Amino acid sequence: MARARRRASGFFRDFQEFALKGSVVDLAIAVIIGTAFTKVITSLVENVIMPLINPLISVTGKDWRTITISPGIAIGQFFGAILDFLIIAFILFIGIRALQKLKRQEDAVIESPLSDPKLAAQERLTGALDRLNQTLEARNNQVL
């Protein structure tokens, strides 16, 4: 009985360590934010974009999302899901591209202090001297 209790407590301890790792918590947060983001995008598509597009692509005065080929095959809903996906993918693309552009601007700002050629040469020389010093110390330690 004691062995089973220790095994169970070890299992729960392992599960707790796994569940509280940063990557698992980050993934959970990402899923929650993604769900909320999906609701926002779905609302944007259904309430803003589609009322503008529906008059252009309506079939015989009906909403194109209600089109069915035969009983049970709702082709309009399928095309609507594809359109939702494309809009979400496009918005994510724009967001990620903007973040990458900001990241590149931050990198450019960090590199700008070394724009003076004398400072850049001094940094390269200092780095070369440090590497040379490490090499000489390593050779002295091998000899000893």
UniProtKB/TrEMBL annotation:
<keyword id="KW-1133">Transmembrane helix</keyword>
<keyword id="KW-0407">Ion channel</keyword>
<comment type="function">
    <text>Channel that opens in response to stretch forces in the membrane lipid bilayer. May participate in the regulation of osmotic pressure changes within the cell.</text>
</comment>
<dbReference type="InterPro" id="IPR001185">
    <property type="entry name" value="MS_channel"/>
</dbReference>
<dbReference type="InterPro" id="IPR036019">
    <property type="entry name" value="MscL_channel"/>
</dbReference>
<dbReference type="InterPro" id="IPR037673">
    <property type="entry name" value="MSC/AndL"/>
</dbReference>
<comment type="similarity">
    <text>Belongs to the MscL family.</text>
</comment>
<dbReference type="GO" id="GO:0005886">
    <property type="term" value="C:plasma membrane"/>
</dbReference>
<comment type="subunit">
    <text>Homopentamer.</text>
</comment>
<keyword id="KW-1003">Cell membrane</keyword>
<keyword id="KW-0406">Ion transport</keyword>
<feature type="transmembrane region" description="Helical">
    <location>
        <begin position="20"/>
        <end position="41"/>
    </location>
</feature>
<keyword id="KW-0812">Transmembrane</keyword>
<feature type="transmembrane region" description="Helical">
    <location>
        <begin position="73"/>
        <end position="96"/>
    </location>
</feature>
<keyword id="KW-0813">Transport</keyword>
<dbReference type="GO" id="GO:0008381">
    <property type="term" value="F:mechanosensitive monoatomic ion channel activity"/>
</dbReference>
<protein>
    <recommendedName>
        <fullName>Large-conductance mechanosensitive channel</fullName>
    </recommendedName>
</protein>
<dbReference type="Pfam" id="PF01741">
    <property type="entry name" value="MscL"/>
</dbReference>
<keyword id="KW-0472">Membrane</keyword>
